[in-house]
Amino acid sequence: MQTNINPQVLTWARKRAGLSVKELARKMKKDPKEIERWEQGQASPSYAQLEDLAYRYLKITLAVFFFPVPPDLQDPKGRLRRLPSDELERFSPNTYQKMRLAQTYQDSIAYLMQDVSASRVGFGDLVAGPLEPDELAGNCRNYLGITIERQFQFQSCETAFKAWRHALEEIGIFTFKDSLEDRFVSGFGLLDKDYPIIFINNSNLNRPGFPGDCFC
């Protein structure tokens, strides 16, 4: 059964997933020209193909393909710290998908916490001042209650992770972890005025050399 989707939404969803026409065609084992025909409105995918597009490759709700215009969703890259464009180009579609997942977590936290008044949020009440990096790092450690001495008492990466996660959540910064295919990415943070979050690459937690070479 053919579907009458909005081809503009298909193009939007593919680009949002970080896939080129050739990459999507390769994943679906299709001729790139067939994907191009879908996006140009000259043909439509079958319902089975549409399910694969939505849930397997592009990670969006199937109903979105029938919207009159692409949805106006913020690109999670806009919440990252500033990175050179060539660094962003290194990320696989899987990393972008996890960024969108993290953005969903962040938006959910903001919704759930809208009626909660926290006495400490982020590092807002930490006076940084004109300090050297090591002095500022020491102040941050003391602020969170994890000194160098305590750090060396941790028996494993998992124990350290739980301690840091708890300390950060006490000041309103939530931490999540999941596996990323890009092993060079240790994790990323999404900025927000009230509820910044940290997303850790779980694949690297027990890998020699952790934390890796890229934290966005």
How would you explain this protein's 3D organization?
This protein has two domains: 7-66, 434 Repressor (Amino-terminal Domain) (Orthogonal Bundle), CATH 1.10.260; 76-215, no CATH class. The chain has a four-stranded mixed sheet. The protein has 216 residues and is α/β, with parallel strands linked by helices. It contains nine helices and four strands. Strand 2 and strand 3 (197-201) form a beta hairpin. The N and C termini lie far apart (43 Å). Helix 2 packs across helix 3.
Protein traits:
216 residues, alpha/beta, 434 Repressor (Amino-terminal Domain), 2 domains, four-stranded mixed β-sheet, 9 helices, 8% strand
The helix-strand sequence is HHHHHHHHHEEEE
Q: How would you classify the quaternary structure?
A: single chain
What is the strand arrangement across the widest sheet? Answer: 1-3-2-4
Q: How many domains in all?
A: 2
Shape: elongated
Strand content: 5-15%
Stretches where pLDDT is under 50 for at least 5 consecutive residues are none
The number of helical segments is 9
> Which secondary-structure class do the elements indicate?
alpha/beta
Query: For the terminal residues, how far apart are their CA atoms?
Result: 43 Å
Question: What do the pLDDT scores average to?
Answer: 82
Q: How many runs of DSSP E, i.e. beta strands? A: 4
